[in-house]
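Onboarding guide, step 5: your first structure request.
Type a short instruction followed by the sequence, for example:

Predict the 3D structure of this protein.
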Amino acid sequence: MSLTNAALLGENDDLSIKIELNETDKTLTLFDNGIGMSRDQLVENLGTIAKSGTANFVEKIKEAQNTSSNELIGQFGVGFYSVFLVSDKVIVTSKS
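The system replies with structure tokens like these:
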């Protein structure tokens, strides 16, 4: 969405991802400064097995930039579910 509406990023257009490991609490926390997802977007993109947002992302990139690259990860929609193989609890918090 920020590719077509840069205002969504606000003043911080330098996107980043931070990974924090806490060995004592046995937690792994991932932070990013993207635009976030609404509840409906979270359900649609994280709550459906074998649903990949990558295909939609590739189509939007092609529309915006006439790009032909299909070499993106996440094409099968099972990446998020792998977290449940190694976790007892998953919490997703989004600023949208």
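Each response can be followed by summary notes, for example: The mean pLDDT is 77.
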